Amino acid sequence: MIKPIKIIEVKSEIGAGTRGASMGVDAIKIAALDFGSPFFKKFKNIEIPNENNLLLEPVVNDYAKRIKGIYNLNERLAKEIQKVLVKDEIPIVLAGDHSSALGTISGIKMAFPEKRLGVIWIDAHADLHSPYTTPSGNMHGMPIACVLGEDNKDRQQNKPDDETIEYWEKLKNLGGISPKISYNDLVYIALRDIEPQEDYVMKKNKIRVFNLQEIRKKAVERVAIDSLNYLDHCDLIYVSFDVDSMDSRISSGTGTPVPNGITEKEAGNLIYYLMRSKKICCFEMVEINPTLDKENLMAENAFEILQKATNQLSHDF
What we know:
Blueprint: E1 5-10, H1 24-34, H2 39-42, E2 44-47, H3 67-86, E3 90-95, H4 101-111, E4 117-122, H5 143-148, H6 162-172, E5 186-189, H7 196-204, E6 208-210, H8 212-218, H9 220-230, E7 236-242, H10 264-274, E8 280-286, H11 297-313
Parallel strand pairs: 1-2, 1-3, 3-8, 4-5, 4-7, 5-6, 7-8
Helix pairs in contact: 1-11, 3-4, 3-6, 8-9, 9-10, 10-11
């Protein structure tokens, strides 16, 4: 049976430190138009109301900036994801900054509380900070710690205020389930920009990472197969693709580009092989920032990868 796909747009950037990621979804739509593609006519879509008005207000929570807005947005997103999955559809989330993954993962767990969820995180960054460890206070660096229920107080360097702690606890418990995933249900691909606090959590919990050396040695097809095999004990798998997983020479159109990433061809092939798994329940693409781009190149690359994902998910299950 072919499951219908539903596009969920999250034009939010309040979790990022650089402005412009909220325009990423529209940049992908422009890329589709430039390619003459009817992609956005083919699938049903819905836009989640955002909290970007908070960008005009002073920051009050230094160690989790705009956390109240992050909570409200992700609660809305989680409910929509739950609704889509319960209707036996596959959500594809196109989002601004990566803090949206909190709502996506929460929504999957709300729809399937008894099922074990595996996460494939394709990203230059581990996003394993908490308000207790963050150097920036930007919440797009915290979604994985949040769904793991990880405060990392062993490496605490900040003293968050009471409101920050209250909302951090609410975020960890979004959907009434915490933790939402366990450490051995997580795989990182193309990870290369890690802070010591994150490295501590990763080594302590032996989190599986496919770095660039291993990707080049094995080729992306093998990495995709190995990732899926590693998560074979999971009932469902969610794939999150941050465009900064790609090399900074081709991913200038993102807020935090990092050298020595995968090429756009490797990214496309990786997604192609991952999406062939019948366990994939959701795909998310984030952090396209057209204000930092030249000639919408990042969005064009992202759109081609998006097409590969949906083509595979549209195949008979």
